[in-house]
């Protein structure tokens, strides 16, 4: 069962325009100020106020100065805690957001950078059903990581984020909304199984040299070659030094991944198959190229090339 305070807060956001004026996306950086920070008594704060009222009535009824003084001190402390709670969010600044990589259906990691000019404690950030608590030291930047659920490939806008705190005594709940105007790119989900891509036959363009154990040829001496590789007998018959070369050609398969070769499939099935082929090529450390409508990516390999190809797939219409 939801907290009655949360139900009241949701009702107020629907009814009061002042609470919803920051629902539209905003460009970064976003800085919180007094016009966008809201504060209400917590459930514990309401109970504490009732207790103070009972103590006040009892102290006045029995003319107990000590009880009256204690009631006033507790009331002053609760009022001061309201100011401290407000200041825990006032001036907080969201400077930038960095997103990781994930395929559709997996959570993508968001890294939010918060700047502050003073110490802040017990701040919580809500995204969907997840909550992350953090603190910020004075004049520092704190990185806060959250997991954003994804459902489909392509650009996904960020939802509203809620910052809140009950610091220091839990008597008041202070909160504010952040709605950054930023989207994250979700990669397509690869198909589970299917045929392998066609790799062209190895030729001279797909060969590279590797260091072997057997002598391959003799070549001219280059600065830096070790002396043990110098062919002294062969060099005696020439005017210059010759070096034993142990480099031999090694096959390096190259995959040509082409959108046009999958004309029998619909667009989403093509994207899923190409995504699976990219995963296989990356796992086998192959060199591969990718042809897409309006985009042709030359042959290459490595994590950056893989990320470029998957991002191109994710942005297809």
Write the layout of secondary structure elements.
Blueprint (H helix, E strand, L loop, with lengths): L3 H12 L14 E2 L6 E4 L1 H19 L3 H23 L5 E7 L8 E9 L3 E8 L2 E7 L3 E9 L5 E4 L3 E5 L6 E7 L4 E4 L20 E5 L5 E4 L11 H5 L5 E4 L1 E5 L2 E5 L8 H17 L3 E6 L2 E6 L2 H12 L3
Count, helices: 6
Fraction in beta strands: 25-35%
Unreliable stretches covering 5 or more consecutive residues? 201-215
Please give the alpha-carbon distance between the first and last residues: 42 Å
Spatial arrangement of strands, main beta sheet: 2-10-9-5-6
**Helix-strand pattern, N to C?**
HEEHHEEEEEEEEEEEHEEEHEEH
Helix content: 25-40%
Please give the radius of gyration in angstroms.
Answer: 33 Å
Number of domains: 3
Shape: elongated
Structural class: alpha+beta
